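Dear colleague,

As promised, here are the two records you asked about, laid out in our usual form so they can be pasted straight into your sheet.

NAME FIELD: protein one
SEQUENCE, THEN STRUCTURE:
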Amino acid sequence: PAGEMGLEPLFQAWSYFRRRKFRECADVCSQLLEGPHAEQVAGTGPRREAAAAWSLKTRALTEMVYVDEIDMDQEGIAELILDENAIAQVARPGTSLKLPGTSQGGGPSPAVRPVTQSGRPITGFVRPSTQSGRPSTMEQAIRTPRTALTARPITSASGGYVRLGTASMLTNPDGPFINLSRLNLTKYARKPKLAKALFEYIFHHENDVKNALDLAALATEHAQFKDWWWKVQIGKCYYRLGLYREAEKQFKSALKQQDMVDTILYLAKVYLRLDQPVTALNLFKQGLERFPGEVTLICGIARIYEEMNNISLAAEYYKDVLKQDNTHVEAIACIGSNHFYSDQPEIALRFYRRLLQMGVYNCQLFNNLGLCCFYAQQYDMTLSSFERALFLAENEEETADVWYNLGHVAVGIGDLNLAYQCFKLTLVNNNDYAEAYNNLAVLEMRKGHTEQARALLQTASSLAPHMYEPHFNVAILSEKVGDLQRSYTAAQKSEEAFPGHVDTQQLIKQLKEHFAML
């Protein structure tokens, strides 16, 4: 029977698939499969048309929920706290992501550039790795990271993956399209063209890693271990199951057979999860010799250097990315933030304006533009940028960021009453904003309200133990009122968070002299 516009139904379904109308494509395939030849699809000798419709429907359903595994990387609490894959408990400086402060690159000081919970400087672009700080306690791990906006999942298997797995219930009210428990995987493994579509359906749509691994193992055996694609898929399954060494073997074997950029990226992911950033860097550099100018590989190197706190080298590699692809949003944003924190707001402004010209139009960009304009002394644009940012804010956390920055601007122009109101509005929108508590405490101290200031600083230090400012302010406040013991304890915490802070060192020295006199 002819379909819409007189097209043959199968050709029409293929047309929908090509135009990325996956829902319509799956519906047309379903009608074909419910026809008189439906039974033969599941039988031993399916007709070609029915088999094609079956294969096309699996591909359409997969595409509806497909997520690129290279960037989909979410470490759960279980992986962070109960991680037994560490190579060395005490890593050499500059060889571990767990101790980013040990980098030899001399990253920016926390006095200039704020740091995240894991001790890394705040980056210019949010991606999974910037949110996966290495918390030292379970309480810290469960608490929502500032940049993530959502609580961390208990394990990576319970985060986005489970939500993807439930897609099979939504796509068909009568139950799943393919009953995996009744599938004869050996039969499908002998049909390479059907097997690949089926594997992707099981892996991405059903989220059944075990069955996907069984099918891939049978298919690679049938291909006499000569098909690199199946080896990569087995590696992906092992990675998802947490068997990183087995995944490494599969990816290496696949690379020997067929040099592919994707396989290099998957293998680098394995090394990063094993906390071997230097091995990952070497892998990327070897890849660049074979694929010169490949943007994803250069970007991978830049990300690793950034996570290891080597900001200057990261910026160099991001510039190399822009030489190959001058519309790379991540590279432009990271170079822009690096210039901003290097006291070059005018240059940062050029990069953010470039993003605006490219069509990026969101709250974060106008927030950054507002700050750059303020520090570049272009005051006429500052408030209008922040107004636009408030208008574009999609949730309360984003609104809180804008109000916090407006508070900073108010402090800069000397309007402390406006600053006080802005920081209060920040806390109305996000009650866990440690920086706002700290700045409010400083304003309260100026008014002489010591007890309120102390309470606010205690809240700030408990919310963000990685920040040195609340601890230092508590130390100063306690020393003024004569509570030397509390002052000394807070100063030690401040020194632990930021060892190079001169004021903290001077305060500790003064307190030690006091104690020596006693």
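NAME FIELD: protein two
SEQUENCE, THEN STRUCTURE:
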Amino acid sequence: EGRKRNQISVGSCSEVSLPGKVSDADIRSLNASIQAPSGLEEPCFLKRLPNGNIGISFTPREVGEHLVSVKKIGKHIANSPFKINVGEREVGDAKKVKVTGTALKEGKTHVDNTFTVDTRNAGYGGLSLSIEGPSKAEIQCKDNEDGTLNISYKPTEPGYYIVNLKFADHHVDGSPFTVKVAGEGSNRQREKIQRQREAVPITEVGSECKLTFKMPGITSFDLTATVTSPGGVTEDAEINEVEDGLYAVHFVPKELGVHTVSVKYKEIHIPGSPFQFTVGPLKDGGAHRVHAGGPGLERGEQGQPCEFNVWTREAGAGSLAISVEGPSKAEIDFKDRKDGSCYVSYVVSEPDSPYKLFISPAMGDAHKLEVFQFPDSGVQADKPAAFLVRKNGAKGELDAKIVSPSGTEDDCFIQSIDSDTYSVRFMPRENGIHNIHVKFNGVHIPGSPYRIKVGKEDADPAAVHATGNGLGDIKTGIKKGDLWPREEFGAVCDLGTDKYKLEPQPYGSHAVLLESGIKTDFLVDTCNAGAGTLAVTIDGPSKVSMDCTEVEEGYKVRYTPLVPGDYYISIKYNGYHIVGSPFKVTCTGEDLAERGAQETSSVVVETVQKVSKNKTLGPVLPLFKSDASKVTSKGMGLKKAYLQKQNMFTVHAGDAGNNILYVGVYGPKSPCEEVFIKHMGRNNYQVNYVVRDRGEYIVIVKWGEEHIPGSPFKVDV
């Protein structure tokens, strides 16, 4: 509790050229994996080498002959798999890393404490450093380009720090180091509250569900909400204002499972949205299912309550702790809304240091300023846009900056139009949601930071789905020749024979794995979500080799965990978690690397718009739950019909669930003249049709894909 971590990784990989020419266009659609002599297989990266050949980069873990498979959409390219020999000197050996300097025994606050790491004789491997203690120490790393690195850390509080230093996934000698840091602290004050949270009663199909959030200072007119059921049906949900600034989304679910609730303000997801909402028993509770969002986590003003929401419904029962830390004491207030959400507000008496950007000094004249002609839509990357600010007589300095989704900041260009009006020009460099901070005498003006959507495509995180066995229970490095216990056969066979080839042994309790492949992968389906930035991060007890390749329906992510334990996989689209993210994945198996602190691996891809093959572009049909056998029909028009007259029958589908009524009439020479269906309410329909040829007709009545009892009907005209 109260300990803070920071970490940094420096890659160093062996690069090997592969024979044959492969063009640049191909390199994006290829993926590669390397299998070590022991059978362990991991993803590796393809890159263009300076001589124009294609090469792979990987971390050698074993001596001997390795096989590199390079595939395009699952098929080996020419000459694949390639053979590569790894010599003794190339395998990363943490024991041969030399560390010099006293900074791993003792350090001082507010200065850079430096030590040197020499990996010249240690082969290839990535270096990762994490430091944990009373403050989040700033880490800097300078590569001396000669196989040595200078690493420094700068803590702001005294006390004991733990430093993990790993090379090629193994601790170097002496790691983890305990460092005693002396010196002045920063007089930061910490205020903490703890509350026990009960589990919310289970919601059932057909009962009214509600999700509440507080968002002061907006008009409900600009709020919209939709709910997507597990079957993929998206419907609008109702939003109402419960009390000042507190809103509730209401919907009635028709099926069990995880629903997605999207709440948008002016077409942009509010902080916390898209929400996960489980109907029926919770699948997986726990801390990773707690969400928080609101203005009090972004900005604040001295002496005024800073407010935010915390949603714990999906996490189940537990103890919720909230602490606020800063240069002065904060008063924390907590309100439980009894529906799995609660509302926190804190008041700070003195402003924060200027670079922390959280608490600004008291308002002063800033409240007089107003913004107009703000571009709500149509803003594009790399094209300038502007808005106006009216000072209304306030005296002082105006400044503005734009913060992109990836976190880079850029100044806005401010010009005075007349004595009371400024024009603010800005140029976004990427697509996605940007924040524009407008300050007057160092204080945010009302409504700042302003959120603005850049780019025309609707990259909607709520439309992205991830599936695959890499999000379920996994094993560390499955290898060729592994024995599989009998009780797991079923699970293995369910995963499909293309993944595993098993040879059951005569003594019956095990099978031998004949061929290994990387089992831990998952698909991120971006088919209905436009183009955006996909960021996948895996946090766990070891670093993982991972890669991400484009496939037809989206992007496939592969990774190889080296240490058993819990891994948390976050998948974000344009900065927002997708449905179900973060995923908690439990890994079993043996240690293939040494444990250290939590380690983070990530990959970021700019996606292109995807259209799925089997679904044509356009609306997705909902998953109907219906029973055509419960539909009844009656009327003369199902037995006998007359020329040029309105022939009629009725269809009653009130007890048959939900679906679409299809009626077709086919004649001896040609289709019928006209068919007219009128819905009389409650799934009762009246059907009229007109024919102009004598003879035998066929009337087909279907409820969804299925014929109703009696259909097709034979009708004499």
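A couple of things worth noting about protein two: Residues 528 and 618 are 9 Å apart (CA to CA). The two ends are 84 Å apart (CA to CA).

Best,
R.
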